[in-house]
Design a protein that fits this description.
Length: 350
């Protein structure tokens, strides 16, 4: 966003989502609500009122980086050993039947000698990840030089509403890509046949279908397929539905869906409780929802993954992994490292 925009009233992310339809009903035809909802919807939201140009989630000028700022330091939060221990504890709780899946995240905090450029980060992410949705939205007042910005390249569509039609594309289950075409294809087939990854994916899809059923008279969810990003193969299911009531807007649906088990876990309340207890990380808007809604109730929202939080010279890069029975702590740590490559590659000088 270029320039200040008023925040949607309500404070928390959930309250802002609920306030959006009434706010837009009294606004002009060219008005949209856009921005970010945090992972924990009880935390302050960052949805703002803008004009139709902000349908592009990152409506700021973008520029390819000539050189990245020089690094002054880096710090993993939590430390790798603590992350592996948290995964082991999550597996213990899964074995007791307390929950079926929980997503545990970690971060890498980078401090540069000069401020990070949001337009340059967004430009590099867009160029390197053309099939993803580039996001660049302010979490704080964007005119404040110390404002935090959420910047990333999300491969995951949380929800799109166009009239009575809704579509989603949840991702869960992944494996690193290979530069060798034959090995890369083999890994994709390995993911499609992985019992552990298909179970993880099925948990996500079933929770989404359960959340959609009260709103839709028809839902279609085919078998999962492969979805490629530069770094990873993912299992993806293209879900579509038809709304029963046209008064149900995209923000109504986001409030019902978010956070999905792709970023939280299942059962939802138990998984969120475990995350708060053992993750050791302030996610902020990471793994939240980023997007827009117009006065007709149409909108498009992506899951805030493959992203970082920028504030001056500080950049926090996030990644998470879905923990289910059969997960391995060392492998999950490695998976989060691969996922961080999306942001880290964008810091490379060309």
């Amino acid at each position: 966003m270029s320039g200040p925009r008023p925040l949607v009233p309500g404070g928390s992310g959930l309250a802002q989502l609920r306030a959006t339809p009434a706010l837009l009903a009294d606004a002009g035809d060219d008005t949209v609500v856009c921005g970010a909802v945090p992972f924990d919807v009880a935390e302050p939201g960052a949805l703002r009122v803008g004009t139709a140009e902000f349908r592009n989630v990152g409506a700021i000028p973008v520029a390819r980086a000539r050189t990245a700022p020089l690094l002054a330091g880096s710090r993993p939060v939590p430390e790798p050993a603590r992350y592996r221990a948290a995964v082991a504890e999550a597996l213990r709780r899964i074995e007791t039947g307390a929950l079926a899946k929980v997503v545990l995240a970690r971060s890498l905090e980078l401090t540069a000698l000069s401020p990070w450029s949001v337009p340059q980060l967004a430009g590099e992410l867009s160029a390197r990840n053309p099939m993803a949705t580039t996001v660049a939205v302010p979490v704080d007042d964007p005119v404040d030089p110390a404002a935090r910005w959420l910047v990333g390249a999300s491969p995951e569509l949380l929800l799109r509403r166009r009239g009575p039609s809704v579509s989603l594309r949840p991702l869960a289950g992944s494996i690193p890509r290979s530069a060798d075409p034959a090995e890369d294809a083999r890994r994709g087939e390995q993911l499609l046949g992985s019992d552990k990854d298909r179970r993880e994916h099925a948990v996500v899809v079933e929770a989404i279908l359960e959340a959609l059923r009260p709103f839709c008279r028809q839902i279609n969810a085919p078998e999962p397929e492969l979805h490629a990003t530069p770094a990873l193969w993912h299992l993806a299911t293209p879900v579509t539905g038809l709304l029963i009531d046209r008064e149900v807007t995209s923000t109504h649906l986001v409030a019902a869906l978010h956070p999905t088990p792709a970023v939280g876990g299942t059962p939802r309340s138990e998984a969120l409780s475990v995350i708060r207890e053992i993750e050791g990380l302030d996610r902020g808007c990471y793994a939240g929802a980023v997007g827009w809604q117009d006065g007709d109730g149409d909108g498009e929202w992506v899951v805030a993954v493959r992203c970082g939080e920028v504030s001056g010279r500080r950049l926090r890069i996030f990644a998470g992994a879905g923990i289910v029975a059969g997960s391995d702590p060392a492998a999950e740590l490695a998976e989060t490292g691969v996922k961080m490559r999306t942001m880290l590659d964008a810091l490379s000088s060309r």
